[in-house]
Amino acid sequence: VQLQASGGGLVQAGGSLRLSCVASGSIRSISVMGWYRQVPGKQREFVATVISGGSTNYADLVKGRFTISRDNVRNTVLLQMNSLKPEDTAVYYCHAIIGTGANSPITYNNYWGLGTLVTVSS
User: Fold this and answer.
1) Which residues fall within 8 angstroms of residue 44, CB to CB, at 6 or more apart?
2) Of 76, 112, 72, whose CA–CA distance to 96 is shortest?
3) Which of 59, 66, 92, 94 could, after both became Cys, cross-link 21 (CB 3.0–4.6 A)?
4) What confidence tens digit (pLDDT) does each residue in 63-80 have?
């Protein structure tokens, strides 16, 4: 199983970016998909998650500015980031809890994608 993220880049404060992450491989089910971010020298922090049923959860710092969504057919999660601030600058990581294999019940594991850099200039 692999997670491939894309969409990072350089944007001015107040601008927008959209991150995309696609899960591929022998996937039976994906329970949670989400995004985390990390600034050098700091711990990775939670940004947003969406479960298979569509319920979402956001970090307080991004509520009202970021929107997470997923396409269960394409195993894709999107993060629309609006009103970006310089403090949003970080490497953004895609995360998913994915069920694989033929056993019942399904075995779920955590997967991480390689990060994509978002830089917001002031």
Assistant:
1) 36, 37, 38, 93
2) 112
3) 94
4) 999 999 999 999 999 999
